[in-house]
Amino acid sequence: MKEYHYLTFSLNNCLYGVSTVYVEEIFFLPELTPIPEADPDIVGVINLRGEILPVMDLNLSFNYQSPGYRLTDSVVVLKSEKVRVGIIVNEVYEVRHISPSEISTELYHGRDWAGVEEKKFIAGIARSGEDILILSNPESLLQYVETQKLASVEDSLDKEIQDNNHHESELLLAQKPVFCPNATGSERKVFRKRADQLRQSEHSQDVKNLIPLAVIVLHGELFGIDLKMVREFTPIRKVTPIPCCPAHIIGNMNLRGEILTLVDIRGVLNLPLMERIDGSQAMVVKLEDIVAGITMEEVCDVIFLNPQEITAVPTGINSGKYEYIQGAAPYQEKIMSILNLPQIFLNGGLVINH
After folding, report:
1. pLDDT tens-digit readout, 298-316
2. Residue 43 three-state SS
3. What fold, for 211-347?
4. Is the four-CA dihedral 286, 287, 288, 289 of positive or negative sign?
5. Contact of 150 with 52, CB cutoff 8 Å
6. At CB < 8 A and 24+ separation, what contacts does 177-185 make?
7. Has residue 67 got a pLDDT over 80?
8. Average pLDDT for residues 267-290, to the nearest whole number?
């Protein structure tokens, strides 16, 4: 039986899928320029290498309240012929193969589900292993965007870029819509830097020589983790302690039906262990057969780093945390240490074999 390929992603604690035929590229959420003339779910546009890309928040399309935007959010760009749209997602997962027999459209046929049927943004639901996926309808999304009055956006966006130089007065900011108004100053700088990078003529995915890193905070210090080992980020909730385990084993957590063991790597880095995990986050990593959640204070950013910016650890320093650090690099006027995660799990005494 023929199978179809779906890129899976999460949005507002739900799991979605979209046909890979329509997926053009993926990048981390940049600063958006709000467009008052557009429908509310068109939350803004970006200048993507000289072309205007409208960006949608499907939470608003489904009549949900948007929970706000985070640095770890991404934009999935969908394209059909000459029409493109970006949709904001919380996490991007793997591509799954789904057969037609696993897809049902009956739940949505002839029904008004939170106002979605009018726009037909939902194609159906699918069973994939133990998960239930909501399958989006990219054709309807693209047709909807095509009807929006965005023709005059490019001129106004270019004028804004030339005039403001990113130093608007408080009065000007108060007079126009602001993207992600609850973002901190440092978060806003990251969103803006991403928008600047996407505006460049070079293709945003031409990053063969760059290193993708997740920037996290452990005990107030910045650390970079190779993004290839990072599966996702998740809030920590309902942790079950494991008896007779060392202090760095925090416990188990149910992550969408998967038992995830949480570990604290601060001790390996000569940092105090985390005293409280309430309100903190976990970075889910996969190293060969090991899947674990690393506890942390926060995720600062996801970046592409030029290897030339990395300073090597001085030779002869093999004690303490330095044996688990590959190098250091500047990040927002601070220094970030780049961790050797395989070395930490292999020789850091984290893995318990009994």
Report:
1. 888 878 888 888 998 765 4
2. strand
3. OB fold (Dihydrolipoamide Acetyltransferase, E2P) (2.40.50)
4. negative
5. yes
6. 177/34, 177/36, 178/34, 179/31, 179/32, 179/33, 179/34, 179/43, 179/44, 179/69, 180/31, 180/68, 180/69, 182/68, 183/69
7. no
8. 84
